[in-house]
């Protein structure tokens, strides 16, 4: 059976910030709605700190594989993995069992860094702002490795701090 493609889903500021003090440094209701629509029903890989930022509970409607050093910890409703590689294998098994057509990798910074070398797609919300005092960053997107295949400007909605651009990147020379 073919493996489900791996896709990073991230919002990143112009200066590379994705987080500050364990949270997102913006309010982007429009983007959160897109995120939910894109990830619902698909297995997602998330780091333990990012899960904690959700209140320590999984997001509804998505099987979670949580990367943590403490795999003996019990977190209701999630599968634990001791490494990103172990998480990918677990998420692939979930995708095969459920018929999911993609696996989402949703952070945080260290999980993104460890995943960039093998993901197939990037779904990037480029936040039109420079965020001061950020403490978590997204790695640079190498244009020799990833090709932007689409981009859509999204004006700031009523509950958004900033306008954004939603971009999709595919790994070059990969089956997409």
UniProtKB/TrEMBL annotation:
GO terms for cellular component: cytosol. Its EC number is 1.5.1.3. Residues 5-171 form the DHFR domain. It catalyses: (6S)-5,6,7,8-tetrahydrofolate + NADP(+) = 7,8-dihydrofolate + NADPH + H(+). Pathway: Cofactor biosynthesis; tetrahydrofolate biosynthesis; 5,6,7,8-tetrahydrofolate from 7,8-dihydrofolate: step 1/1. Keywords: NADP, One-carbon metabolism, Oxidoreductase. One of its GO terms (molecular function) is dihydrofolate reductase activity. GO terms for biological process: dihydrofolate metabolic process; folic acid metabolic process; one-carbon metabolic process; tetrahydrofolate biosynthetic process. PANTHER family: DIHYDROFOLATE REDUCTASE. Key enzyme in folate metabolism. Catalyzes an essential reaction for de novo glycine and purine synthesis, and for DNA precursor synthesis. Belongs to the dihydrofolate reductase family. This is Dihydrofolate reductase.
């Amino acid at each position: 059976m073919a493996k489900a493609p791996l896709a990073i889903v991230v919002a990143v500021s112009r200066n590379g910030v994705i987080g500050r003090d364990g949270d997102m440094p913006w309010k982007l209701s429009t983007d959160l709605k897109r995120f939910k629509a894109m990830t619902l029903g698909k297995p997602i890989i998330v780091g333990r700190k990012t899960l904690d930022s959700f209140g320590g509970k999984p997001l509804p409607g998505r099987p979670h594989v949580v990367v943590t050093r403490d795999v003996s910890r019990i977190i209701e409703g999630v599968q634990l993995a001791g490494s990103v590689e172990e998480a990918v294998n677990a998420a692939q098994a979930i995708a095969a069992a459920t018929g999911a057509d993609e696996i989402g990798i949703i952070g945080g910074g260290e999980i993104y860094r460890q995943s960039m070398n093998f993901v197939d797609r990037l779904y990037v919300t480029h936040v039109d702002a420079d965020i001061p005092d950020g403490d978590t960053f997204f790695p640079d997107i190498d244009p020799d490795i990833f090709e932007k295949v689409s981009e859509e400007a999204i004006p700031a909605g009523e509950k958004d701090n900033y306008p954004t651009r939603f971009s999709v990147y595919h790994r070059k020379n990969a089956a997409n």
